[in-house]
């Protein structure tokens, strides 16, 4: 490249960058064909991939209970929910594809441990009440995180989130309704619901990520309007939403430090055990190996489906050409 061409290229980038910054500042959407900084693209791919992986890995702990659901109604609801999560994974892998990264590459990174999924899915579902606790707390935390993403600066991600959030809110309500039925049931059922909430509460709070001061990507993501609120702000919102809901469920949240703070107009809550979070993140959670092993197996066993679909597409393509 000549010096003049290099200069022109640099000027182009500066002009593109100015357009991009102006669009973000004006709350306009960035679309796949628009110029975007490489780091913005990479951040989105990382975040959308992690989100997509969480959706499909998240199918496992709940699918574990489909065959043991206590009634046909509960089984139908749970099957619909688990199927929704597969759909969420598909929307999100498609959103990542608009950034130039294919699904094969992302799945390969998941299977080889180079990309992560939400740590929450490394906890086991020990009883039927866990299905309720996951719906109420895990899907509830996901909604709190994801509603602001409907206004994310990247168009395809924002639009995928609109539909996902609608479905997540059904998931949250089915979990609440399940727990309510158990809480109002026999003493043993009530105890089972309480035990599930005791086990899922703290991991749900960890879903919002590390405290703001230690969050590596937060500031830049907020400047790019990928992220709209900080981890701590979203976590606080979630706690404030859950406290009255727990009261109407007749269940307690396992935190002696939880109390209304009149001055702040919000709830104070106890310290989170971040060592546990880091351990699970490092792969030492109760189910890390099981989850990724199952995912790899499912991928290998599904090879014939992908081959058949590709062969059909090739044949169909020829027939219509
Ligand atoms: Fe989902
Ligand atoms: Fe969900």
UniProtKB/TrEMBL annotation:
GO terms for cellular component: cytosol. One of its GO terms (biological process) is phenylacetate catabolic process. SUPFAM superfamilies: Ferritin-like. InterPro entries: Aromatic_CoA_ox/epox, Ferritin-like, Ferritin-like_SF, PaaA, PaaA_PaaC. One of its GO terms (molecular function) is phenylacetyl-CoA 1,2-epoxidase activity. PANTHER family: 1,2-PHENYLACETYL-COA EPOXIDASE, SUBUNIT A, PHENYLACETIC ACID DEGRADATION PROTEIN PAA. This is 1,2-phenylacetyl-CoA epoxidase subunit A. It comes from Streptomyces klenkii.
